[in-house]
C-alpha cells in the first residue's frame, strides 16, 4: 500500500533557478567573492523572466549564499558555518539541550583534543597560544574590575567569548571537519554553559587573586605542544565539569 504522504513535490520556477545557481557555485562556475551575471543575463541563460530570477536571488541572499549589493550586483558569499549556526541557534537551543552540554563536550572536545595532540601544526600552536593570551588578559581584566564598574558585564562577556574561541581553536586543530562542525553546531549552547560555570569560577575572586582558569587553559596548550594527551584530558574534563574557582 502506497503511503499518501509520499507525493513528489513539483518545484517552482524560482526554486529551479535557485538550485541551478547553487549547483553552478558548487561546481566552481562562480567562486567566492565573484560577481555573478546580472538578472537579465541569468533570465536569458535559464529561459525565464527577470521576476523569477529576482525571487531566486532573494532566496539565495536569505540563505547567505549570495550578497546582492544595490546598484552593483550579486556576489558569491564566503560561507561562514559558525555565523550561520549562530543565526539559527534560538530555533534549537532549549533548557533540556543545555543540560546535555557537559556530556556533549566531554565526548566531542576530548576527541578533538586527542587528535590535536596528534595533528597540531606549529601554526595551530601559535594560534592556540594567542587564544590563551587573549583569555588570560580578558579574565584578568574582569577580575580586576571593581564590582560597580559599568563595564563589568561587557568584560564578563568578553572573557567568555575568549574562552569559547580557545576551545573552538582546539576543535579546529583536530583537522577533522565533521568534529569541527559538531562543535560549531553546539557553539551557542556551549557558550551558555561556559557563561554559567565561568561565573561560578570567578564570582569569589578579588583583584590580585590567582586565576586558576587561566592556568588551566595554558595547561591545555602545553599538553598539546608536549603531546601529553592523558594529562591534557584530565585538565579538560575537570574544566568542563568543575563549577568552583
From TrEMBL:
Presence of the UniProt keyword Coiled coil in the record: no
Entry-linked SUPFAM superfamilies: GntR ligand-binding domain-like, Winged helix' DNA-binding domain
Location of the HTH gntR-type domain: 11-79
InterPro entries reported for this sequence: GntR_C, TF_FadR/GntR_C, Tscrpt_reg_HTH_GntR, WH-like_DNA-bd_sf, WH_DNA-bd_sf
Keyword line: DNA-binding, Transcription, Transcription regulation
Domain of life per record: Bacteria
Record-level Gene Ontology MF annotations: DNA binding; DNA-binding transcription factor activity
Keyword Nucleotidyltransferase belongs to the record: no
Name of the protein described by the UniProt record: FadR family transcriptional regulator
Origin species: Eubacterium maltosivorans
Amino acid at each position: 500500500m502506497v503511503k499518501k504522504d509520499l507525493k513528489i513535490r513539483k518545484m517552482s520556477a524560482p526554486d529551479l533557478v535557485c538550485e541551478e545557481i547553487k549547483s553552478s557555485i558548487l561546481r566552481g562556475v562562480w567562486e567566492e567573492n565573484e560577481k555573478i551575471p546580472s538578472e537579465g543575463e541569468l533570465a536569458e541563460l535559464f529561459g525565464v523572466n527577470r521576476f523569477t530570477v529576482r525571487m531566486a536571488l532573494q532566496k539565495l541572499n536569505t540563505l547567505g549564499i549570495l550578497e546582492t549589493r544595490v546598484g552593483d550586483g550579486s556576489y558569491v558569499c564566503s560561507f561562514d558555518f559558525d555565523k550561520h549556526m549562530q543565526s539559527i541557534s534560538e530555533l534549537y537551543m532549549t533548557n533540556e539541550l543545555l543540560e546535555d552540554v557537559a556530556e556533549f563536550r566531554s565526548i566531542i572536545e576530548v576527541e578533538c583534543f586527542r587528535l590535536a595532540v596528534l595533528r597540531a601544526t606549529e601554526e595551530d600552536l601559535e594560534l592556540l597560544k594567542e587564544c590563551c593570551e587573549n583569555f588570560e588578559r580578558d579574565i584578568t581584566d574582569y577580575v580586576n574590575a571593581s564590582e560597580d564598574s559599568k563595564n563589568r558585564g561587557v568584560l564578563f562577556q568578553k572573557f567568555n567569548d575568549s574562552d569559547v574561541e580557545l576551545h573552538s581553536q582546539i576543535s579546529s586543530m583536530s583537522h577533522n571537519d565533521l568534529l569541527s562542525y559538531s562543535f560549531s553546531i553546539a557553539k551557542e549552547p556551549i557558550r551558555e554553559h561556559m557563561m554559567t560555570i565561568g561565573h561560578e569560577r570567578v564570582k569569589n575572586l578579588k583583584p590580585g587573586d590567582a586565576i586558576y582558569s587561566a592556568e588551566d587553559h595554558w595547561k591545555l596548550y602545553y599538553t598539546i605542544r608536549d603531546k601529553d594527551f592523558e594529562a591534557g584530558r584530565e585538565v579538560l574534563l575537570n574544566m568542563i565539569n568543575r563549577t568552583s574557582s
